[in-house]
Amino acid sequence: MSILRRFNHRFSTVAAAAAALRQDTTVWTRAPLSTVDQAAESLFHVSVDVSYSPNLVASHTRAGQYLQLRLTDAEKPSFLAIASPPALAASNGAFEFLVKSVSGSTAELLCGLKKGDVVELSQVMGRGFDLEKIEPPQDHPTVLIFATGSGISPIRSLIESGFSADKRSDVRLYYGARNLKRMAYQDRFKDWESSGVKIVPVLSQPDDSWKGESGYVQAAFARAKQIYSPKATGAVLCGQKQMTEEVASILVADGVSNEKILKNF
C-alpha cells in the first residue's frame, strides 16, 4: 500500500470514528405522542408529551429553536422546528410541531403514528430568533415576517410567545402556500391578528375564487413594500430558501440593516 493510500485510509478511519463520536454525544429522550392530526394538505400537527423530561422542557427558551426527532424504524432523524411557544411546554408539558409529510422520509413515518407511540427527541438546538435586535418596540415599529409552507411553524412560536406586536405600528406576516388547503394554522389567524399581527396570505396556485395576494411571497411583498422607515424596520424570515434570499435582498436594498433580518437556522 502506498504512503498516500495509507494516509487516505487512516484519515477516513479517523473521520469515521470522529463522526461516530459526535453522534454518540447526542442525548436522546424517549417521549410518547399526544396528538397526530392533519393540519393541512401534507402537513400534520404533532404533539409530544415531555412532561416527564423537565430538563428538556427547560432547554426550550426561545421561539425559533429546533431539535431532532428519531424513530426506531427510520434510518435518519428528522430536524423539526418547535411550533409551540416555550411557555406551553412549561405549563402543559408538550412540544408541538408542524410536520410536512415527505414520501420516504422520517417525517412521513412520524405522520403515520398515533397517540401513545414513542419517539426520541434530542436536546433543543439553535439560538432561535434573536429578538433583542428588534427591541424595544418603539425603536422598531415595523416588523415584517415571511414564511412559506411548514416554515410557519417557528413563526407560530414567535407570535404566541409575544414580541410586543400590539406596541408596534406595522407588523405584517406574509404567509405563502400553494393553495388554502395547504395553509396551516388558519384557525389561529384571528387570534394572531388580535395580538397586532396583520396576516397577508399569498397563494401560488389559487383557484378562481381567490381575491387575495397571489404568486410568490417575495413578489407580493415587492408590490406592497410600504417600508416607511428602513432604519426602524426589522424582519423575520423562515421557509423556502429562494424566498428568504430574495426577500432579504429586497429589504437590504431598501435600507433595512442585515443585522435586523432574523432567521432561526
- Please state the structural category: alpha/beta
Class of the largest domain, according to the CATH hierarchy? Alpha Beta
* Secondary structure: helix percent: 25-40%
Count of individual helical segments:
8
| Termini separation | 44 Å
Largest sheet: 6 strands, antiparallel
Sequence of secondary-structure elements: HEEHEEHEHEEHEHEEHEHE
Question: What overall geometry do the principal axes of the alpha carbons give?
Answer: globular
Can you tell me the CATH superfamily of the largest domain?
Nucleotide-binding domain of ferredoxin-NADP reductase (FNR) module
Strand arrangement within the widest β-sheet reads: 4-3-6-1-2-5
Mean pLDDT: 91
- The total beta strand count reads 12
Q: Do you know the CATH topology of the largest domain?
A: Rossmann fold
Supply Rg. 21 Å
CATH-derived architecture of the largest domain:
3-Layer(aba) Sandwich
Strand content: 25-35%
Uncertain residue ranges: none
Produce the secondary structure layout.
Blueprint: H1 3-24, E1 29-40, E2 43-49, H2 54-58, E3 66-70, E4 78-81, H3 86-92, E5 94-100, H4 106-111, E6 118-121, E7 142-148, H5 152-161, E8 170-177, H6 189-194, E9 198-203, E10 213-214, H7 217-224, E11 233-238, H8 241-253, E12 261-263
Parallel strand pairs: 7-8, 7-11, 8-9, 9-10, 11-12
Antiparallel strand pairs: 1-2, 1-6, 2-5, 3-4, 3-6
Helix pairs in contact: 7-8
